[in-house]
From TrEMBL:
It comes from Xylocopa violacea. Keywords: Membrane, Transmembrane, Transmembrane helix. Residues 31-377 form the Major facilitator superfamily (MFS) profile domain. It is found in: Membrane. This is Major facilitator superfamily (MFS) profile domain-containing protein. The chain crosses the membrane at residues 12-28, 123-141, 147-167, 188-209, 215-233. Its main location: membrane. It comes from the Eukaryota.
Length: 377
């Protein structure tokens, strides 16, 4: 009698859970980056929209005295606004809150791999995400208690989650044959998907409930993931109670010459004096600096400098948000200008808008500019 073919192999289950694990890891890492926009009191006059009162000709460029209507999607700092659930943090304090996660995050990168080798990736990788998620539930409480309490909590989150990435390499070596590893490591891209999901998810939750709910939702997803990880994943094929004999035999035969269980000494001197190692470190440091600076500061920058209301619109929809924001009496004079194409904004999606065009005064108005620039009339 022919054996029934499995719908999903244990390696397939592992791929999905690793993918979701890295997505959760990034969710818990960057959820504060966007949510902080709804946590702090907006600065007054963060976005200046009206033009100057005088007209100047500088190098053939003309500045008009026209006063332009303000899009309703931009922050309006009114005197009667109240921000009972927000904090009057300045830029330095916001920077401390945003950067605290990374201060000790690097310290557990190397121990993470060594811990996984000794105690197993199931424990190290799983607890790295689970403890970070549990601490995430405390963020709203700590934030209301004191800014420094939030900073200490984020430092602890970063320290714990630092073991996640290096610990996975040990499990990959024990579960995945060499000819399948290039496909399996695509599960590491869950981090990119997690980053892509976190911003719109936090924006929707914050807009629908409050900023504290964003941390509760992302942490809850982390706890749910850990439940699946705990019951479905095991450190080696030999320890897995539900793996088929056929799959176990295939894995062990292909890993026979790749995995060595005996202890070996680490050649620290050769590693630390290797030129290619240091070149790789410097390159990775530069890339990581740019990446995390961008994903950490971008939401605050676009909200307070460019005036995007990130909590009610997705960043990709910002152009339509600005277009739809003009009041009914004035919006008929404005339309998107797309190079050679001219149509009303919502109907044209081939290219992103570069500027508004005021058909009434024949003026070009660049998007996201600190001042309004006009062409010669």
């Amino acid at each position: 009698m022919a054996k029934k073919k499995e719908l999903l192999s244990c390696r397939g289950v592992l791929w999905y859970l690793v993918f979701c694990g890295f997505a959760i890891n990034y969710m818990l890492k960057i959820n504060l980056n966007l949510t902080i926009v709804a946590m702090v009191v907006p600065r007054r006059n963060a976005v200046t929209i009206t033009g100057t009162e005088c007209a100047k000709d500088i190098s053939g460029m003309r500045y008009s005295n026209s006063s332009l209507p303000v899009p309703s999607s931009l922050p309006q700092n009114k005197d009667d606004d109240t921000y009972e659930d927000r904090f009057a943090w300045n830029e330095h304090q916001q920077g401390l809150a945003l950067g605290a996660y990374y201060w000790l995050h690097w310290l557990t990168q190397l121990p993470g791999g060594l811990l996984a080798r000794r105690y197993g990736t199931k424990l190290v990788y799983g607890l790295g995400n689970f403890i970070t998620a549990i601490l995430g539930f405390l963020i709203p409480f700590m934030t209301y208690y004191h800014l420094y309490a939030l900073i200490c909590l984020r430092i602890l989150q970063g320290l714990v989650s630092g073991v996640v990435w290096p610990s996975m390499h040990d499990m990959t070596a024990k579960w995945i044959p060499p000819n399948e590893r290039s496909r399996f490591v695509s599960s590491y891209l869950g981090s990119s998907v997690g980053a892509a999901i976190t911003y719109p998810l936090c924006a929707i939750v914050t807009s629908a409930f409050n900023w504290g709910a964003a941390f509760h939702v992302t942490s809850l997803l982390g706890v749910i993931w850990y439940c699946f990880w705990f019951f479905l994943v095991h450190d080696t094929p030999q320890q897995h109670p539900r793996i088929s004999e056929e799959e176990k035999k295939y894995i062990l035969e292909n890993l026979a010459d790749c995995v060595h269980e005996e202890e070996t000494s680490i050649p620290w001197k050769a590693i630390l004096t290797s030129g290619p190692v240091w070149i790789t470190i410097i390159a990775q440091w530069g890339v990581t600096w740019c990446l995390f600076t961008l994903i950490t500061q971008a939401p605050t920058y676009f909200n307070f400098i460019h005036g995007w209301n990130i909590n009610t619109r997705m960043p990709s929809d910002a152009g339509h948000s600005l277009h739809d924001g003009w009041d009914g009496g004035e919006r008929r004079h404005f339309r998107f200008h797309f190079g050679e194409h001219r149509r009303h904004g919502p109907k044209l999606r081939q290219r992103s808008p570069r500027f508004f065009r005021d058909d009434r005064n024949c003026q070009r108005i660049p998007l996201a500019s600190g001042r309004w620039r006009f062409d010669d009339q």
